[in-house]
Structures are given as C-alpha cells and as structure tokens.
Amino acid sequence: MPERLLVVGGDAAGMSAASQARRRRPAAALEVIAFERGGHTSYSACGIPYLIGGLVEELDDLVARTPEVFRDRFQIDARIGHEVIGIDTKNRRVRVREIQSGTEYQEAYDQLVVATGAEPRRPPIPGIEAEGIHGVQTLDDAVSVERSLEGGARRAVIVGAGYIGLEMAEAFVLRGLDVTLVEQAPQPMTTLDLEMGELVADALREIGVGLRLGEEVEGFDVVEGRVRSVEAGGGSIPADLVVLGTGTRPASGLAEEAGIPIGPTGGVRTDARMRTEVPGVWAAGDCVETFHRVSRKPVAIALGTHANKQGRVAGINLGGGYATFPGVVGTAVSKICSVEVARTGLNESEAEAAGFAFGSVVVESSTRAGYYPGAEKMTVKLIAELQTGRLLGAQIVGAEGAAKRIDVIATALWNEMTVDEIQGMDLSYAPPFSPVWDPVLIAARKAQERAEDGWTDAP
To answer: Are strands 77-80 and 30-36 parallel, antiparallel or unpaired?
Structure first.
C-alpha cells in the first residue's frame, strides 16, 4: 500500500507541496489527494485586479494548472468543490464536505499538509453581508465582482487602502467607474511611512480616485438586500459596489480546532521544514506564521511568493529530501497606474516596535539619466540602525523603473549589509536605465553621511 498524503487547499502552497512530493515519489509509493473548496487550482489571486481592469483578458489566463492537469500529468487527485471541515490528528483522518451535494465523508492520511491560505477581515459593520459587497481573494470573487460590473455598476467604494485596495482602485478607474477609497488611517498604504504614503495619495488623486482618509466606515445602506451607499465620517457615499480591502488574516481556524498550535500572529506555527508540532502534519502558505529576518520576530505575511516557496519546502521534505524556509524580509511591490510603490524590511513604526534605535533619509532622484527621454522622478527612503549603520528597511515611490530597484535593497537587507557597504556596490549604469549614481546608491551615500555626522536629527 502506498503512503497517503492529503493536502488541504489547492492553490499556491498546497499544490506546490503536492507537486514537489510527487516529483520525488511515484504514485506507487505515494498517493496524493488535494482538496480545494473553490472551483480552481493553482491560480494567481494577485492577477485579479488586472483581470477586473481589463489588462488580463480571460479568467483562465490566471490559472497555472487545472485539476485535470494535476490528475492526468502528475497523478494528483485534485478535488475542487470539496471543503475539509474537520481534522482528527489522533486517528489521522479528515472530514470532507462535497459542497454541491452536501455529502460528507472521511479520508485517512499518513501525512497532511494544511494550506488553507488567508481570509479577508470582515469587520462587524451593519450591512456588510449585503449583495454587492465583495472580498477579492479567489477567482470566484473575481467572477462575483465582474457580475456587479456587468449589472451596470458605475460607482465603486473601496474600504481599506492596502495593496488590494489600491490595485482595485486602479482597476475600476480603467473600467471608467467613479471610485472612492475610504481609509481609517491618515494615509493610504500604512506599510509605508507617512511622507511616502502621501506620495501614494497624490498618485491616487491624479487618476481621479476620491480619498476619504482618517474616516471609519460606520455602516452600509442596504435596499432590498443590495448595497446602495457607504456610511463613513458622518456622511453617505453612493455605491453600486463595494470592495473590502481591509486586509487578511491567516485562515488557521481549521488547524486550531484540530489542536494544531497557533502562533502569536494567528498563523499556524511551524519549524523551518514546515512541520507543525503535531506528528504527520505540515503547514505552508498564508495560513502560517514565519520568521522576519530583520525584526527577528514571527510575522504573518500573505504573499504568493512565500506560499510557493513554503509549499516547495514542505513537498521536498515529504518526498524524502531536505529543505528549509529561511524566513522573510517583507518585500512587496505594487502600482497605481504609472506610479510604482515598493517596500522591504521595516518601516519606522516597525523598527521602533522591534526595539531598534534608527535614523532615516529620503532622497529624490530620477529613473534614468536626467537628459534621457522619459526620465521621471522617484523617491527613495532608507532606514538604518544607529551606530552600526546596518540597513533596516527601505521604501520607494516613483515612475516606471522605480519599484524593482527594491530587489537590490532587499538583497542587501537579506545579507545584513550596512549603508556604507551599499553605497559602494557595483550597480549597472547606462542613461536609459539609471543616472550615473543610481538612486539606491545616492540614498545609501546620504545615509552614510548622516551616520558620520552622528544622525543628529534622528529619532
């Protein structure tokens, strides 16, 4: 009898784990069954705003591998429309509900991967369950939003100005909607510091998005079961559809109910090999917490990059190999039409919470040599530890060519470089791509000069 591996969740982490395990162990040695409650496997949720905005033509373009491909090519039994509703770790069984029929059954396992992803935060606001109010987590959500648009929606309100909120704002602008964004913080993108967030706010206003910053949503006006307006800041904002961009949290409830330990972030706790503390149970992806290499604390960050890597690590180990997940530094990029936004490491509030004494610099430069056609402005912020000069974090806002520079900084951050070391890095130069001093090097040089002066105005 082959060993049996069950996977709960059929997207990035779950199917990466299943595929890696299969590559190392044939079907005769390892039976693999994956359960996915939605209608798709291995898809790019990150692409949903670009599908809604019309930049991606077909929903199927976001699907990397269908259940049929997994079954026929990889001999992985991928069951869509099947939700795991209980885990019995003592007897090594899961309880499954076939969603369409409501039929429940049990499956035994030798090894189990929990890859249940993240779930949107839905604050307890009156009317939040009304028709026309959408989360944007799955391809099924994308279909639901598209139906609202096809139904004649012309006024969109987005609640929350994080990554998904900004990307959906751009998508609706591209579709010609009147867009209002409501955010209870005084700036969009609270993962950035205030002065960098203000640049993002300017970019949103330039494309016609109405900003209601520092306002909290108090309720939704619902008529015949459908949302008609959003109540915020003591006023009413007309709405044909609403998108909740209020963030996500690890979907760890199933694991917690089974007695699988949960960490302080709300994510499933694992070791570096993605094993939980329960024998035979592994976890990967947005449902787990991981190690932040700068703050040295556990974090829960929902990104497909991490999910794929963690799933791969789990699968290699399940297949008899050896791999570890080394942690994260919190690197992310986004854009609002022509303005790109990037960050890595810690912002100032995170650095303070982690106990660092730090200083920061903000520099303005250009994406190309100033005399070269198409040169545009970009702003770089670096945060460095006092005395040592070790880089702690960075943020970039600018035109095309700005955001991916964060990868250079993330590499330096990963290797615990100082701003002095960064300013001497041998980065490429040609007028179409960079000034002779790349903006990253300018920022590092400025930080080093400030360090030599003793960071006299540092916090």
So the answer is: parallel
Do 189 and 228 sit in the same domain of this protein? Answer: yes
- The residue out of 226, 246, 266 marking a domain boundary is 246
Say what the alpha-carbon torsion angle 277, 283, 285, 289 is, to the nearest 10 degrees: -10
Question: By 3-state DSSP, what share of the chain in percent is helix, strand and coil, each rounded to 5?
Answer: 30, 30, 40
Domain assignment present for 279:
yes
Q: CB under 8 Å to 155, separation ≥6 — which residues?
A: 177, 178, 180, 238, 239, 240, 241
Active-site residue identified among 3, 4, 46, 372: 46
* 139-144 own/partner pairs: CB under 8 Å, 24+ apart: 139/38, 139/39, 139/40, 139/43, 139/45, 139/48, 139/59, 139/62, 139/63, 140/38, 140/39, 140/40, 141/48, 142/48, 142/51, 142/52, 142/59, 143/59
- Give me the CATH number covering residue 238: 3.50.50.60
Could you tell me if 44 and 101 lie in one domain?
yes
d(CA 154, CA 146): 12
Residue ranges making up the domain that contains 176: 122-246
Q: Tally the domains of the chain.
A: 3
Report how far residue 358's alpha carbon sits from residue 193's, in angstroms, rounded to the nearest whole number: 14
Domain assignment of residue 370, yes or no: yes
* Tens-digit pLDDT profile for residues 54-65: 999 999 999 999
Each residue's pLDDT tens digit, 121-155: 888 899 999 999 998 988 999 999 999 999 889 99
DSSP H helices in 207-303: 253-257
Residues 126, 237 within the same domain:
yes
pTM over 0.90: yes
Quick check: helix, strand or coil at residue 178?
A: strand
Alpha helix ranges (H) inside 291-356? 304-318, 348-353
Task: Let me know: does 53 contact 174? Beta carbons within 8 Å.
Answer: yes
- C-alpha to C-alpha distance for 3 and 104, rounded to whole angstroms: 23
| Domain membership flag for residue 456 | no
Cα(22)–Cα(32) distance, integer angstroms: 8
Same domain? 79 vs 138 = no
- Parallel/antiparallel/unpaired status of strands 377-385 and 358-366: antiparallel
Sorting pLDDT into bands at 50, 70 and 90, what band is 38? very high
Residues 230 and 261 in one domain: no
From CA 166, how far away is CA 181, in angstroms rounded? 8
Is 46 catalytic? The answer is yes
> Quick one: 170 exposed, middle or buried, by C-beta within 10 A (0-12, 13-18, 19+)?
buried
